[in-house]
Here is the input.
Amino acid sequence: MRMCSPWPVVDEDVLTVARAQKAMGDSVSAIAKALGISRATLYRHLDESA
Here is the structure.
């Protein structure tokens, strides 16, 4: 059973920053580290928003 957080880890503001950094050529690893989230979480949210 998958447990869900009562609030999103990545909100639209964070996702906007992540998209901008990715567009500038930053690696997903560097973006995730700067935002304090896991790479897997960032990849999942970037894929969902595509």
Notes: The radius of gyration is 11 Å. The helical segments are 12-23, 28-35, 39-49. The chain has a mean pLDDT of 86. The chain has three helices and no strands.
